Amino acid sequence: MTDGSTQVGNMRNGNTHVSNTHVSSTHFGVLSFPGSNCDQDVVHALEHLGYQASYVWHNQTDLGGCDALVLPGGFSYGDYLRCGAIARFSPVMESVKAFAAAGHPVIGICNGFQILTEAGLLPGVLLQNRDLKFICQSVHLRVEASVCQWIDLEPGSMIELPIAHGEGNYYCDELTLGRMEAKGQIVLRYCRPDGLVSMGSAAPNGSLDDIAGICNERGNVFGLMPHPERVSDGLNGRDGAYLFQAAVRRLEARALASSSGSVNAQGGIEGGTDGGTEGDAHVGSQSEEQANV
Known about the structure:
It is a single chain. This protein is α/β, with parallel strands linked by helices. It has a single domain, classed as Rossmann fold (3-Layer(aba) Sandwich), CATH 3.40.50.880. The protein is 19% helix and 22% strand. The protein has five helices and 13 strands. A nine-stranded mixed sheet has the order 4-3-5-6-13-12-11-8-9, with helices on both faces. A two-stranded antiparallel sheet has the order 1-2. The longest helix is centred in the last third of the chain and has 19 residues. The two termini are 15 Å apart.
């Protein structure tokens, strides 16, 4: 992580602009595929939160020293064949896989979630919505106890994020579902306004077990269908900001632990939590098991 102003490369016209916002040293790379249409929304949200953000074009293999990666929503390659099925073969995805394998944080939002499942970075698949209709609405989500490094809200907390998709119906086989439950990989579930889930009926898209977001076993790769970037700047809400801020807290905690020699052989942080704070009343700390990066 390096200090300085945000250099955001505009891949559409080849120019760059410098954010006037005072930024932290955390640098997010936002992937852009042909057909992506939420990449600029993500950059706006990240800059508003004070982080550095730069576009990473689909045919690049150099991630430019990014600390975290975002695969945004949209319709990569027009959603031909299946959502994300072509994007998984983009040159940048080999670098994404290596980045994730090294333990660095990766988040896939909507179409980005679909790409992560197609690439084998997350289990399961996203099918057509139960009623075969595009859904655009706000949804209530319940935070589950998980190993996910992109969230440090207390289990049972509720957040509200918007969805906008036609293929967000999450599915996996029973064995995979049981393994994810046991390993703390189910991160968010659709719920009723009172926080209750109802065995698959709370998900507007028919998603199995009301699943809205999952992570890999290590917790550094996170996929969700709702759009946190759309409610991060305070205009329509700020619940989405918690996800990006949690990832940054963990990155900063790891950097601090590394400088003090307290990072273990697996890249985790010795002796306590991984940087979750109580600076926001909505945000809780997590256990040491959730600190591995």
